[in-house]
Each structure stands twice: as structure tokens, then as C-alpha cells.
Amino acid sequence: MLKRIKYVSRFAQLLSAEEIVQLAGNASEKNHRLDVTGILMSSGGMFFQILEGPPKAVEELWAAIERDPRHTDVLLLSSEEGIERRLFPDWGMGAIDLDAQADDRLEPLKAILTAILAQRRSMEELSGVLERAVWREPAGIARS
């Protein structure tokens, strides 16, 4: 059985198309050794990635991504266990630079990536409001 994770993040600093290709190439080599496959899409300073493979390997890669200084605003979209079939069985790490593609069919993908990160910011702001409201201890709330 396999594990699959999907996440989005922002570039901590601007990366060129060549740097993204190099990043994907390095990941592909490492992933091949770990029996991990997946895809890396980039657009507008954002990454969307799917990783799939043996659970321990995927978890170790995910931990490394969370610590990686090239990523900021890392958001796990889903984590699936017990996967029987890979989505990307032949890709150590396929890379798609949506900014380099002039194909209008890819515009919805760019919009989705932007919306996901905007939603994250909204959730963080709302969470902060909730925390501040609780901190003020509204009348009628009993302490335990």
C-alpha cells in the first residue's frame, strides 16, 4: 500500500525556470531511489506538488519539505493512506512550469493555485480573530 500527499507552497524567493527544472531533476533522482513518484507544478511563485510512494518515504520527504527554506506558506491539502495505484507511475518527479506554458487551458490551474493560497490567508486571519476573541474571555464563558 502507498501514501499520497498533495500540498501547495510559495517560493521563499523567486526561482527561475532553470532553477525549477534543476529542482525537479534533483528530486526525481532522489525519488527514484526512494520509490517515490509525483509531479511538481509551479506558477506565479507557487508550487503544487503530489508525492506518492511507500508511506515512510513520503513522510520523510514531507518533513524535509516543511523544513526546506525554499518553501514558505506550506499547506498540506490532503494525505491519503492505503493507495493501491499511483497517479504518476512513470514520473520520478514530473515538472510543469505553468508560467512558461502559453496554453489557455492551463489558466484554470493557475487560478486554482492562487485561490488555495488566498483561502489559506483568509483562514489564518479568521483563526487569529477567533483567538483574540477567546483571549478576551467573553462574558458567560465558564473557565475550567
List the helices and strands and how they pair.
Elements: E1 2-11, H1 17-34, E2 37-43, E3 46-53, H2 55-67, E4 71-83, E5 94-97, H3 107-135
Parallel strand pairs: 2-5
Antiparallel strand pairs: 1-3, 1-4, 2-3
Order of helices and strands: EHEEHEEH
Classify the fold: give the CATH topology. Answer: Alpha-Beta Plaits
Sheet with the most strands, sense and barrel status: 5 strands, mixed
Low-pLDDT runs: none
- The residue-averaged pLDDT reads 83
Task: Round the Cα radius of gyration to an integer and report it.
Answer: 18 Å
Structural category: alpha+beta
Give the helix tally. 3
Helix proportion: 40-55%
- Sum up the overall morphology in one term: globular
Number of domains: 1
Can you list the strand order of the major beta sheet?
4-1-3-2-5
What is the CATH first-level class name?
Alpha Beta
What is the level-2 CATH architecture name? 2-Layer Sandwich
- How is the quaternary structure best described? single chain
Question: N- to C-terminal separation?
Answer: 44 Å
